Every structure is written in C-alpha cells, then in structure tokens.
What we know:
alpha+beta; 2 domains; four-stranded antiparallel sheet; 3 helices; 42% strand; elongated
Amino acid sequence: MDERGWYVIHTYAGYENKVKTNLDKRVESMEMQDKIFDVVVPMEKQVEIKNGQRVITMRKVFPGYVLVEMIMEDDSWFVVRNTPGVTGFVGPGSKPVPLTESEMELILKQMGMDEAKPKHDFVVKEQIRVISGPFNNFIGTIEEIHPERGKLKVGVSMFGRETPVELNFDQVEKL
C-alpha cells in the first residue's frame, strides 16, 4: 500500500482557486476521497497601505501551483492530471515525487503566519515624505529597509544635520 504524500501540481496562472474547486468536485464525484485527501492553494497574509489605511490581503505564496495530499496510484494520478486547468505534476520524469516533510512544514508554517508581511516597493537612497507621527511632513532618504519588521531607517534633516529615524512603512510615502 502506497503512503500518502504532498504533491505539487502546475496550473495555468491565475487558475489556482478554480483548479482547487474543480479537483474537490472531481474527487467527490469520482469517489476518490480514500486516495485524494486535501487540495491547498498556499496563501499568506500581507499588509498593504491603501489610501493611508492598513489593509490585510491574501497573497498566493506560489502563483501557478497547487498542493495535493494524495496516495499516488494510476487512478488518483489520472483524476488529478485530467482536472481542467492542471498542466501537470512537478517533478522529474513521468512519476511525480512528493514533497519532503520538512518542505511541507516550511510551507504550512509560512501559510499559518499570524503576522501579515508588509508589502513595500521602497528602495535604498529613495526620497520619501513622512505622513504621520512626530516627524510628519519631514522629507528623508531611505538608508535601510527591514521588510520582516515593516520598518525603514530614514535619514531626516533636523537642525541642519542628518538624523537617522526608524519609521513604519505606513508612516511614509514616496515623493
């Protein structure tokens, strides 16, 4: 008896959720619940600033890919492979290789993050304007970017000299 494993399937770009829905329906209609257990589109939370407000959105971790927990046999392979929107399994040769436990743990950990990752398009040495906090309306130059913390180190001119200040992404705007 084969063991269950997580496999990666490639889909048309932007069709990940549709493939998940189609595959879930096929599993049910073809009574494959004993061989195909779970279908996941890896997503993570991301913080964006829209109109000065922090908005949490969901972002696909691996665009164009869907994860399937299944027992790899000819009939289960056929059901997944012939689902509309699926272009194939990821792996060398004709027999797909399951993800390792550590790879899957890493993906699940990334998806289950409680804290949303801030989205940014800042560049070092870029000029910005502070839009909130004690340095409101100051102009500064980005010295460092810390995306994991959602912070910038900005050189702000105060009293005739550059002073480094740490600010959140949502406290600044591009000039």
